[in-house]
């Protein structure tokens, strides 16, 4: 197959999370490849069970926020045409210290292991967490790039990293078309009384201050995948009603009503709602004004931060990280603001509603807010409470501290929040229950399933069990054996088992379903890409 021909068929899907980089390579299924006579295909040409893309390879680089990073490489057992070399599991790689060098490491490994030429990749789908008012995926040109950049303040752990990957793609894969897939699009169905904040509506509109919601690609994948997993069909008069928990380094929940996002826990930015690895989740907004005792203390901290940033930028320049790519510079302003019209003020709104709020280092009035963003996003959550970003480690410590007792970790913890780990575990449980209760009411008790996903949701039977006990009063019941064996079920027959039903079959009762779903944001992007006629050329 010529490189040109391959180039039309290979899709690289890049999912930049706050602590990880997940990359999958797909080929458009042969029956689905565009041909000169039929440049695009549609969902209606798919046979039942047929996927429009075929997985060739998945690579995960995790622990980016708690080095050393861990590199995994998993060629698909069914990919016969290209040899991608041996499987690698959790290899610690010291030199991977950022999303950008994780990506270049991946590209080098891809070339060395498979000999695949860069030109063979025709499309690169990038997960971009904050898409502001975007309502559909977009090919990344100068304008799209700039708009994503303008939204970076509203997803401080994400959009910046995604932009560095977009730049790296333009540099290393210049013949590929880069397409942005936004997490926010899925939540465009949330009604105004839920997405609005109780603030001045004029300011809210002008500055795009509203709930956006994130993890949308994950929720889209889960919703679509789950719709084929109901043995008892849901009432035909409505779509699925679900409560889905995507619990990873960033954790959120969504209330799916009639097959659409009705409410979600994250808001204007991914810091609100549930706590995460380094994020605080919901706090009283006034907390930020009480963190420091005085403006002076805040200004000193700000000074230190600016110095550290300068040092970091010098280092980056040395590494050549800030090379110009296709005529694009990350941000012309040395102070990182968005003074595009050069009037000396940040430009507050643009065609996509929101822009930067507070990153002018020179503006004294902003000092506390910018530091607050840093504190709430990077210096809070599990890391601040316990010293680790890994929830698995927190669970292990809770278990160890309760091992002499016959009670389970969460029961032990409830007696006294004896240590920081137990406090963190119980705090998370409490916040999760808060939203489950709220969403249960919003769905009028009519729920088809409760769903766990994301790194913690997929890998922590302890957290699922603790929640399972509390939600029995709502008619959910978890089978403890199935819950404990979720990992085995996934790795067992058919490595592609993406959904495990952990609900208990209540005799004579119509028990509600509880599922664990291995979410796959990369597949969601690649699938949407292959089905979108705008990207078929
Ligand atoms: N065995 C485990 N038990 C509980 N949590 C785990 C376990 N292994 C990993 N995790 C959690 O999963 C998180 C990563 O989730 P993931 O969804 O993959 O990341 P991201 O949010 O970067 O996309 C880690 O930060 C860690 O807290
Ligand atoms: C939105 C978000 O927090 O994403 P992630 O969990 O991938 O960091
Ligand atoms: Mg993620």
From TrEMBL:
Q: Print the keywords alphabetically.
A: ATP-binding, Kinase, Magnesium, Metal-binding, Nucleotide-binding, Transferase
Signal peptide, first to last residue: none
Which InterPro entries does the UniProt record give? Ac/propionate_kinase, Aliphatic_acid_kin_short-chain, Aliphatic_acid_kinase_CS, ATPase_NBD
Q: Which residues bind ATP?
A: 22, 246-250
Q: Specify residue ranges for compositional bias: Basic and acidic residues.
A: 300-331
Q: Which residues form a coiled coil?
A: none
Region annotated Disordered, chain positions: 300-360
Where does the record place Acidic residues bias?
332-344
Q: Name the chemical reaction catalysed here.
A: acetate + ATP = acetyl phosphate + ADP
Q: Where does Mg(2+) bind?
A: 15, 521
Entry binding sites for substrate: 127
Q: What class of enzyme is it?
A: transferase
According to its UniProt record, which residues of this chain constitute the active site? 183 (proton donor/acceptor)
Q: Which family does it belong to?
A: Belongs to the acetokinase family.
Q: What PANTHER family does UniProt report for this protein, alphabetically?
A: ACETATE KINASE (PTHR21060), ACETATE KINASE-RELATED (PTHR21060:SF15)
Q: Could you identify this protein by its name?
A: Probable acetate kinase
């Amino acid at each position: 197959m010529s490189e040109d021909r391959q180039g039309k068929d290979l899709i690289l899907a890049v999912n930049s999370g706050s602590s990880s980089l997940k990359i999958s390579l797909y080929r458009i299924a042969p029956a689905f490849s565009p041909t000169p006579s039929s440049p695009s295909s549609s969902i209606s040409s798919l046979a039942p069970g047929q996927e429009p893309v075929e997985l060739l390879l998945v690579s995960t680089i995790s622990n980016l926020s708690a080095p050393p990073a861990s590199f995994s490489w998993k060629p698909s057992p069914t990919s016969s045409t290209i040899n991608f070399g041996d499987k690698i599991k959790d290899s610690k790689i010291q030199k991977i210290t950022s999303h950008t060098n994780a990506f270049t490491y991946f590209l080098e490994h891809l070339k060395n292991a498979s000999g695949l030429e860069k030109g063979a990749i025709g499309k690169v789908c990038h997960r971009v967490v904050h898409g502001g008012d975007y309502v559909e995926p977009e090919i990344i040109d100068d304008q799209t790039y700039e708009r994503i950049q303008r939204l970076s303040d509203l997803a401080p752990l994400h959009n910046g990293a995604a932009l560095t990957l977009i730049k790296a793609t333009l540099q290393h894969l210049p013949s590929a078309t880069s397409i942005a897939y936004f997490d926010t699009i899925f939540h465009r169905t949330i009604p105004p009384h839920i997405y609005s904040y109780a603030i001045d509506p004029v300011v809210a509109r002008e500055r795009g201050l509203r709930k956006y919601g994130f993890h949308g690609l994950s929720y889209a994948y889960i919703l679509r995948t789950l719709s084929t997993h109901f043995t008892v069909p849901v009432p035909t008069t409505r779509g699925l009603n679900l409560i889905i928990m995507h619990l990873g380094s960033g954790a959120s929940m969504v209330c799916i009503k009639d097959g659409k996002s009705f409410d979600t826990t994250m808001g204007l930015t991914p810091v609100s709602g549930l706590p995460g690895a380094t994020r605080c989740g919901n706090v009283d907004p006034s907390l930020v004004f009480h963190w420091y005792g005085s403006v002076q203390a805040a200004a000193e901290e700000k000074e230190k931060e600016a110095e550290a940033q300068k040092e970091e930028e010098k280092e980056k320049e040395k590494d050549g990280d800030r090379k110009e790519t296709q005529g694009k510079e990350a941000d012309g302003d040395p102070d990182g603001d968005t003074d595009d019209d050069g009037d000396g003020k940040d430009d507050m709104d643009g065609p996509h509603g929101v822009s930067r709020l507070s990153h002018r280092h020179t503006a004294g009035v902003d000092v506390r807010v910018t530091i607050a963003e840093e504190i709430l996003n990077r210096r809070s959550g599990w890391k601040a409470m316990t010293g680790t970003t890994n929830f698995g480690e927190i669970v292990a410590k809770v278990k160890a501290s309760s091992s002499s007792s016959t009670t389970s970790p969460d029961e032990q913890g409830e007696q006294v929040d004896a240590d920081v780990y137990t406090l963190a575990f119980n705090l998370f449980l409490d916040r999760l229950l808060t939203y489950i209760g709220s969403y249960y009411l919003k769905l009028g008790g009519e729920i088809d399933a409760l769903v766990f996903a994301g790194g913690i949701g997929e890998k922590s039977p302890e957290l699922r069990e603790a929640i399972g006990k509390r939600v029995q009063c709502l008619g959910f019941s978890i089978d403890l054996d199935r819950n404990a064996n979720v990992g085995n079920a996934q790795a067992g027959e058919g490595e592609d088992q993406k959904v495990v039903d952990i609900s208990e079959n209540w005799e004579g009762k119509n028990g509600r379903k509880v599922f664990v779903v291995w979410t796959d944001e990369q597949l969601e992007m690649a699938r949407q890409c292959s089905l979108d006629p705008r990207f078929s050329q």
